[in-house]
Amino acid sequence: MTFSRTLPRRTFLQLAAGAAALPAATRIARAQAYPTKSLRWIVGFPPGGGADTVVRIMAPWLAERLGQPVVVENRPGASSNISLQAVVQSPPDGYTLLFVAASAAVNVSLFDLPLNLVRDIAPVSGLIDFSLVMVANPSLPVKNVAELIALAKANPGRVTVGSFGTGSTSHVAGELFKTMAGVEMIHVPYRGGAQMLADLLGGQLQVGIDVLTGPLSQIRAGGVRALGIGSKTRSEFLPDVPAIGETVPGYEANSWCGVGVPRGTPPEIIERLNREINAGLASPAIKGRYREVATTPLFYSPAEFGAYVAAETEKWSKVVKRAGIKPE
């Protein structure tokens, strides 16, 4: 009895199709077993700050849903670029998460880096939105954005506006305001919102742009005056304060954050992480914790969050170039 040295075409195609399906089957099996060990959630900001706080609210929920510890690892420095590098250099296996801050979208055009947020990080989900608020020292003779614009136009280059750092979201939000309102104001950068708020309270600074969480108690106590909210609509936490866009049509500036993983992470794992994070954002307990720090949950699919990050990156790139912002 003899055997043919060539396989029938149908048999060959069946074997080829089976071989091609093996990598996909392996990935699916790996995703179904995921996770089998603890996860690292890398945050490019120091412990105790706003970024660290919102991550530590979600991390226990995620750990419970995944059945594995989620360890928060703070890697501050270089405007959060150190944290980006740490995640990009990690295996794309779903065990290393990145806290994606709005400042990371600014960094794409601010720094000349071999790493790229949009290219090298796969989007997973949104997390929360920090509303930005424009605040003023009560001694400044303005009560709203229209009066500030009038004052700045009458005194070009004499009104100061602070931010919590060069290239930060509050900085580019201020530059966008100056361009759209047609005013000239002096930018004063700080190393964080706390120092900026202290100078506002002390009268050394006239106007500042900060995340609402920072100055909210002082706004309610009358220590500083809220002129306008950076979001498209008014904030539920200060419903009587108009959005800046009500005076400067089209103005919108938010400080948001989300979650990413190294590019190449299996889509099944990304979908699992997205599902669990969004379930956390929808839970009354987590929503309540985020409400306590004056933030709003951001519900996105991976594709939606990726589109949002890309749009924000493009938007702030134009502002950085127009304003000639350079990293410190």
Write the layout of secondary structure elements.
Blueprint lengths: L8 H25 L5 E5 L6 H17 L3 E5 L6 H8 L7 E6 H9 L6 H4 E16 L8 H10 L5 E4 L5 H13 L4 E4 L3 H10 L4 E5 L4 H6 L3 E5 L24 E9 L4 H16 L1 H9 L2 E3 L4 H22 L5
Parallel strand pairs: 1-2, 1-3, 5-6, 5-7
Antiparallel strand pairs: 3-9, 4-7, 4-8, 4-9, 4-10
Explain this structure to me?
- With 328 residues, the protein is an alpha/beta fold.
- The protein folds into two domains: 37-129 and 255-323, D-Maltodextrin-Binding Protein, domain 2 (3-Layer(aba) Sandwich); 131-246, 3-Layer(aba) Sandwich (D-Maltodextrin-Binding Protein, domain 2), CATH 3.40.190.
- It is built from twelve helices and ten strands.
- Strands 1, 2, 3, 4, 5, 6, 7, 8, 9 and 10 form a ten-stranded mixed beta sheet that branches.
- The model is unreliable at 1-7 (pLDDT under 50).
The fourth-level CATH homologous superfamily of the largest domain is Bordetella uptake gene, domain 1
CATH architecture of the largest domain: 3-Layer(aba) Sandwich
Q: What order do the helices and strands follow?
A: HEHEHEHHEHEHEHEHEEHHEH
- Overall helicity: 40-55%
Distance between the termini: 81 Å
Indicate the proportion of strand residues: 15-25%
Largest sheet: 10 strands, mixed
Unreliable spans are 1-7
Rg over C-alpha atoms, rounded to the nearest angstrom: 24 Å
Under CATH at level 1, the class of the largest domain stands as Alpha Beta
E-strand count = 10
**What structural class do you assign from the helix and strand content?**
alpha/beta
Summed up, the helix count is 12
From the spread of the alpha carbons, the general shape counts as globular
Average of per-residue pLDDT values: 92
CATH topology (fold) name of the largest domain: D-Maltodextrin-Binding Protein, domain 2
Count of domains: 2
